[in-house]
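B., you asked whether I could sanity-check this one before it goes into the benchmark set. Here's the sequence:
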Amino acid sequence: MVSLDAAELTTRELNTRLKELAGAGTEVTVINPQAQHNIAVGILTPCKITIEGSVGYYSASLLDGPEVTIDGNAGWALGENLMSGRISLSRSAGASLAASMRGGEIYVGGSAGARAGISMKGGTLLIGGDAGFLAGFMMQKGRIIVCGDVGEAVGDSMYEGTIYVGGSYGSLGNDAKVEEITEDELIVLWDYLERNGVKGRPQFTKIISAKRLYHYDSLERLEKVVV
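And here's what the prediction gave me:
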Protein backbone atom coordinates (compact mmCIF):
# COMPACT_ATOMS: atom_id res chain seq x y z
CA MET A 1 0.00 0.00 0.00
CA VAL A 2 1.19 3.52 -0.86
CA SER A 3 0.21 6.70 0.98
CA LEU A 4 0.04 10.04 -0.85
CA ASP A 5 -0.14 13.36 1.00
CA ALA A 6 -2.46 15.62 -1.02
CA ALA A 7 -1.23 18.66 0.90
CA GLU A 8 2.21 18.24 -0.70
CA LEU A 9 0.99 17.75 -4.29
CA THR A 10 -0.90 19.81 -6.84
CA THR A 11 -4.14 18.31 -8.10
CA ARG A 12 -2.47 17.37 -11.40
CA GLU A 13 0.48 15.76 -9.62
CA LEU A 14 -1.83 13.82 -7.33
CA ASN A 15 -3.96 12.50 -10.19
CA THR A 16 -0.89 11.58 -12.22
CA ARG A 17 0.49 9.55 -9.31
CA LEU A 18 -2.87 7.86 -8.74
CA LYS A 19 -3.05 6.77 -12.39
CA GLU A 20 0.52 5.45 -12.29
CA LEU A 21 -0.12 3.48 -9.12
CA ALA A 22 -3.46 2.18 -10.39
CA GLY A 23 -1.75 0.87 -13.50
CA ALA A 24 0.74 -0.98 -11.29
CA GLY A 25 -2.06 -2.55 -9.24
CA THR A 26 -1.07 -0.70 -6.07
CA GLU A 27 -3.60 0.07 -3.34
CA VAL A 28 -3.42 3.77 -2.45
CA THR A 29 -4.41 5.90 0.54
CA VAL A 30 -4.71 9.68 0.11
CA ILE A 31 -4.29 11.76 3.27
CA ASN A 32 -4.96 15.48 3.84
CA PRO A 33 -7.26 15.96 0.82
CA GLN A 34 -8.44 19.27 2.38
CA ALA A 35 -11.57 19.27 0.19
CA GLN A 36 -9.55 19.69 -3.00
CA HIS A 37 -11.55 19.58 -6.22
CA ASN A 38 -11.13 17.01 -9.03
CA ILE A 39 -9.35 14.38 -6.93
CA ALA A 40 -9.06 10.84 -8.36
CA VAL A 41 -10.51 11.57 -11.81
CA GLY A 42 -10.08 9.88 -15.19
CA ILE A 43 -8.79 6.55 -13.85
CA LEU A 44 -9.66 3.68 -16.21
CA THR A 45 -7.98 0.82 -14.35
CA PRO A 46 -9.47 -1.35 -11.57
CA CYS A 47 -7.79 -0.39 -8.30
CA LYS A 48 -8.50 0.54 -4.68
CA ILE A 49 -8.20 4.13 -3.48
CA THR A 50 -9.01 5.33 0.03
CA ILE A 51 -9.30 9.07 0.68
CA GLU A 52 -9.10 10.03 4.35
CA GLY A 53 -11.04 13.28 4.53
CA SER A 54 -13.49 15.41 2.58
CA VAL A 55 -13.21 16.16 -1.14
CA GLY A 56 -14.43 19.01 -3.34
CA TYR A 57 -16.41 19.03 -6.59
CA TYR A 58 -16.08 16.49 -9.42
CA SER A 59 -14.08 14.09 -7.30
CA ALA A 60 -13.95 10.40 -8.31
CA SER A 61 -15.46 11.31 -11.68
CA LEU A 62 -14.82 9.87 -15.15
CA LEU A 63 -13.91 6.49 -13.65
CA ASP A 64 -14.05 3.03 -15.22
CA GLY A 65 -13.21 0.29 -12.74
CA PRO A 66 -11.77 1.78 -9.52
CA GLU A 67 -13.12 1.22 -6.04
CA VAL A 68 -12.94 4.56 -4.22
CA THR A 69 -13.70 4.97 -0.52
CA ILE A 70 -14.01 8.51 0.88
CA ASP A 71 -14.14 9.09 4.63
CA GLY A 72 -15.80 12.51 4.72
CA ASN A 73 -18.08 14.78 2.72
CA ALA A 74 -18.01 15.57 -1.00
CA GLY A 75 -18.85 18.64 -3.08
CA TRP A 76 -21.15 18.61 -6.08
CA ALA A 77 -20.93 16.13 -8.98
CA LEU A 78 -19.25 13.31 -7.07
CA GLY A 79 -18.96 10.27 -9.36
CA GLU A 80 -19.92 12.16 -12.51
CA ASN A 81 -19.99 9.80 -15.53
CA LEU A 82 -19.00 6.70 -13.56
CA MET A 83 -18.72 3.82 -16.04
CA SER A 84 -17.97 0.92 -13.68
CA GLY A 85 -16.58 0.34 -10.22
CA ARG A 86 -17.77 1.61 -6.86
CA ILE A 87 -17.66 4.86 -4.89
CA SER A 88 -18.44 4.85 -1.17
CA LEU A 89 -18.83 8.13 0.73
CA SER A 90 -19.19 8.00 4.51
CA ARG A 91 -20.95 11.34 4.96
CA SER A 92 -22.93 13.72 2.69
CA ALA A 93 -22.65 14.87 -0.94
CA GLY A 94 -23.49 18.14 -2.68
CA ALA A 95 -25.66 18.76 -5.72
CA SER A 96 -25.64 16.72 -8.96
CA LEU A 97 -24.40 13.55 -7.30
CA ALA A 98 -23.77 10.78 -9.87
CA ALA A 99 -24.51 13.07 -12.83
CA SER A 100 -24.64 11.06 -16.10
CA MET A 101 -23.62 7.90 -14.23
CA ARG A 102 -23.55 4.95 -16.66
CA GLY A 103 -22.71 1.93 -14.50
CA GLY A 104 -21.27 0.68 -11.24
CA GLU A 105 -22.40 1.69 -7.76
CA ILE A 106 -22.33 4.84 -5.65
CA TYR A 107 -23.15 4.75 -1.95
CA VAL A 108 -23.62 7.89 0.17
CA GLY A 109 -23.92 7.32 3.90
CA GLY A 110 -25.40 10.76 4.58
CA SER A 111 -27.66 12.97 2.50
CA ALA A 112 -27.36 14.48 -0.99
CA GLY A 113 -28.15 17.87 -2.48
CA ALA A 114 -30.35 18.76 -5.44
CA ARG A 115 -30.45 16.86 -8.75
CA ALA A 116 -29.02 13.58 -7.47
CA GLY A 117 -28.79 11.15 -10.40
CA ILE A 118 -29.36 13.86 -13.03
CA SER A 119 -29.27 12.36 -16.54
CA MET A 120 -28.39 8.99 -15.03
CA LYS A 121 -27.88 6.26 -17.64
CA GLY A 122 -27.23 3.13 -15.59
CA GLY A 123 -25.92 1.65 -12.35
CA THR A 124 -27.22 2.03 -8.80
CA LEU A 125 -27.14 5.14 -6.61
CA LEU A 126 -27.87 4.48 -2.93
CA ILE A 127 -28.39 7.40 -0.53
CA GLY A 128 -28.69 6.50 3.14
CA GLY A 129 -30.23 9.85 4.14
CA ASP A 130 -32.30 12.45 2.29
CA ALA A 131 -32.03 13.94 -1.21
CA GLY A 132 -32.90 17.44 -2.47
CA PHE A 133 -35.22 18.58 -5.25
CA LEU A 134 -35.17 17.20 -8.82
CA ALA A 135 -33.73 13.83 -7.84
CA GLY A 136 -33.59 11.68 -10.97
CA PHE A 137 -34.06 14.69 -13.28
CA MET A 138 -33.93 13.50 -16.93
CA MET A 139 -33.04 9.98 -15.75
CA GLN A 140 -32.69 7.53 -18.63
CA LYS A 141 -31.76 4.23 -17.00
CA GLY A 142 -30.56 2.72 -13.72
CA ARG A 143 -31.78 2.73 -10.13
CA ILE A 144 -31.85 5.42 -7.43
CA ILE A 145 -32.55 4.35 -3.85
CA VAL A 146 -33.13 7.07 -1.25
CA CYS A 147 -33.71 5.75 2.25
CA GLY A 148 -34.95 9.08 3.60
CA ASP A 149 -37.03 11.94 2.21
CA VAL A 150 -36.80 13.53 -1.25
CA GLY A 151 -37.59 17.14 -2.19
CA GLU A 152 -39.84 18.58 -4.89
CA ALA A 153 -40.14 17.40 -8.52
CA VAL A 154 -38.69 13.93 -8.02
CA GLY A 155 -38.24 12.12 -11.35
CA ASP A 156 -38.92 15.22 -13.44
CA SER A 157 -38.72 14.42 -17.18
CA MET A 158 -37.37 10.92 -16.54
CA TYR A 159 -37.55 8.51 -19.48
CA GLU A 160 -36.57 5.16 -17.96
CA GLY A 161 -35.14 3.83 -14.71
CA THR A 162 -36.61 3.53 -11.23
CA ILE A 163 -36.51 5.76 -8.15
CA TYR A 164 -37.25 4.27 -4.73
CA VAL A 165 -38.05 6.65 -1.85
CA GLY A 166 -38.02 5.32 1.70
CA GLY A 167 -39.55 8.42 3.31
CA SER A 168 -41.78 11.16 1.92
CA TYR A 169 -41.36 13.23 -1.24
CA GLY A 170 -42.34 16.84 -1.92
CA SER A 171 -43.97 16.31 -5.30
CA LEU A 172 -43.68 14.28 -8.48
CA GLY A 173 -41.93 15.91 -11.41
CA ASN A 174 -43.33 16.25 -14.92
CA ASP A 175 -44.14 12.87 -16.48
CA ALA A 176 -43.34 10.87 -13.31
CA LYS A 177 -45.81 8.55 -11.60
CA VAL A 178 -46.02 6.18 -8.64
CA GLU A 179 -46.24 2.47 -9.40
CA GLU A 180 -47.18 -0.18 -6.86
CA ILE A 181 -44.11 -1.94 -5.54
CA THR A 182 -44.07 -5.74 -5.24
CA GLU A 183 -42.96 -7.77 -2.25
CA ASP A 184 -40.17 -9.30 -4.34
CA GLU A 185 -38.83 -5.84 -5.14
CA LEU A 186 -38.84 -4.89 -1.47
CA ILE A 187 -36.91 -8.04 -0.57
CA VAL A 188 -34.28 -7.24 -3.22
CA LEU A 189 -33.99 -3.65 -1.95
CA TRP A 190 -33.73 -4.67 1.71
CA ASP A 191 -31.04 -7.21 0.84
CA TYR A 192 -29.10 -4.51 -1.02
CA LEU A 193 -29.36 -2.16 1.96
CA GLU A 194 -28.12 -4.86 4.32
CA ARG A 195 -25.13 -5.62 2.08
CA ASN A 196 -24.23 -1.93 2.19
CA GLY A 197 -24.54 -1.72 5.97
CA VAL A 198 -27.76 0.31 5.95
CA LYS A 199 -30.09 -0.60 8.80
CA GLY A 200 -33.87 -0.71 8.57
CA ARG A 201 -36.43 -1.88 6.06
CA PRO A 202 -38.21 1.16 4.58
CA GLN A 203 -41.54 0.66 2.85
CA PHE A 204 -40.32 2.21 -0.36
CA THR A 205 -42.43 4.22 -2.80
CA LYS A 206 -41.61 3.29 -6.41
CA ILE A 207 -41.48 6.13 -8.95
CA ILE A 208 -41.19 5.57 -12.71
CA SER A 209 -41.81 7.47 -15.93
CA ALA A 210 -45.39 7.88 -17.16
CA LYS A 211 -43.87 7.98 -20.69
CA ARG A 212 -46.09 10.74 -22.02
CA LEU A 213 -43.01 12.66 -23.15
CA TYR A 214 -42.13 9.75 -25.43
CA HIS A 215 -44.75 11.11 -27.82
CA TYR A 216 -44.60 14.82 -26.99
CA ASP A 217 -45.11 15.94 -30.61
CA SER A 218 -48.41 14.08 -30.81
CA LEU A 219 -49.91 15.61 -27.67
CA GLU A 220 -52.69 18.16 -27.85
CA ARG A 221 -51.84 21.73 -26.89
CA LEU A 222 -53.54 21.55 -23.48
CA GLU A 223 -51.86 18.24 -22.75
CA LYS A 224 -48.46 19.81 -23.39
CA VAL A 225 -49.25 22.52 -20.84
CA VAL A 226 -49.96 19.81 -18.24
CA VAL A 227 -46.75 17.93 -19.08
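One thing to flag: The longest strand covers residues 64-70. Otherwise nothing jumped out at me.
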